[in-house]
Specification:
Layout (H helix, E strand, L loop, with lengths): L57 H14 L1 E5 L4 H12 L7 E4 L3 H9 L12 E4 L5 E2 L6 H8 L1
Parallel strand pairs: 1-2
Antiparallel strand pairs: 1-3, 3-4
Length: about 150
């Protein structure tokens, strides 16, 4: 090898930065001494109010009970129907069991009631079927949360 002087490629007035800019690269060793960090003023923090998960309030439960009572709801179901059993569990959880009459659609009484329902859809229906003896409206489309069914039958 020959010893040639290293040519300076910097143009006139341009100097190499003395400190690296940007974040350190993984292959660059970190400084071992203290690092100058700017002191930032604390940012005022407003308290965050998060809603507490609470069960349905008594007034809401009473409102739903009142609405169900006013509708005089009847549910036609089948013992082997999963959607019917799910609806029954929902009704029980909400404390509505005493206010909704449940009939087996395959019994003579259930078939008679179903035969008298107005506005049955053409073709197949979904179980359970909910009907309001007061408004004469029915819901034939299978499982749906009871709150929505009450809205549709009012």
């Amino acid at each position: 090898m020959t010893d040639k002087p290293i040519k300076n490629n910097n143009k006139k007035g341009h100097k190499k930065p003395s400190k690296p800019t940007g974040p350190p690269r993984p292959d660059t060793p970190m400084p071992s001494g203290p690092v100058d960090t700017p002191i930032l003023a604390p940012i005022p923090v407003k308290p965050v109010l998060t809603p507490v998960s609470t069960p349905v309030s008594v007034s809401t439960e009473n409102e739903l009970v009142t609405r169900v009572k006013n509708l005089e709801l009847l549910m036609l179901s089948r013992v082997t129907c999963g959607s019917c059993n799910k609806s029954k569990r929902d009704i029980e959880k909400l404390g509505l069991t005493p206010y909704i009459t449940v009939k087996d659609i395959d019994s003579d009484e259930g078939l008679t009631i179903f035969g008298k329902l107005p506005n049955k859809p053409v073709g197949s229906i979904g179980l359970p079927v909910f009907t309001s003896l007061k408004t004469k409206k029915s819901y034939f489309y299978g499982y749906c949360p009871i709150e929505i069914i009450v809205d549709k039958l009012e």
